[in-house]
Design brief:
By secondary structure, the chain is of the alpha/beta class. It contains 8 helices and 9 strands. Strand 5 and strand 6 (about 145) form a beta hairpin. The termini are far apart.
Amino acid sequence: MKRIQYARCRFCAIVLFIVLLVVTFDVSWSGRKPSIGTPDTSVNLTALRNLIVVPCHATLRMDVFGMDTAEEVSWMLESHLRGKGIISMVTKHIRTALELASKDPQSLVLFSGGVTKKGSNWSEGASYMQHAIRSQWWEYSGTTVLDRVFPEEDARDSFENILFSLCRFHALTANYPSHITIVGMDYKMKRFIGLHRVALRIPLSYLTYVGLPDGSHGLDDSRSLRVFEKDPFGCEGNAELRALRNPTHRGVPYYDPGMCPALRPLLSYCMERYPRPLVILQRLPWE
């Protein structure tokens, strides 16, 4: 009898230890935002006016829990990108965006990038979010910014990084931003400022591009420039790439007519019958 009672007590102790271990790990992982993308009631999101967008370029591995996200091995990267400092670049982009947000209490940060890698359910946006949380970078000069940081988890290219982030901002704040700041690679500035901004009819004074000197990492932007010069919305020119970067066949929620009605002309443009209109006549929120 005593042996049975001892065995039961030992079993209960083991179960209790496992439960405490799981709870402790969960708290340490989640930090101050246990539910990614869920607004914190301590922040009045409708009061936020400015958007800071970080176009994402990397995805965490599916089994990343317990790993150091500052190490390259924690990320899913193409073989030709390994060993080229990509995660250092990711870190620099995240920290720059958070520093900008700490200086502007009316700003909201979006890490923009969809589920682009087969074999991982992490979106690029959520991957950046987790890297920031695990690294505890949200405290700057006594100002907490994490409650104003969210992922945008559907963009598949740079054009959608801007357009979908505008919709995500509206979904969170019920407003459209008064100003947009993009934190990205310096060599992509021409694409964002000279092509995407023009296609979306965003005034030059309305958008700031913070280009960081990360180097090209062996990448060439000439293909993307040619594609968007010929096809500003990427309807045909980037259709194959967008399909490739959506291996789980996720639906895009922003296409729902009720999501951001003022941007319907932009969102539905690629769905128009060919030939598409040369000019979008509807007035946009920033015009």
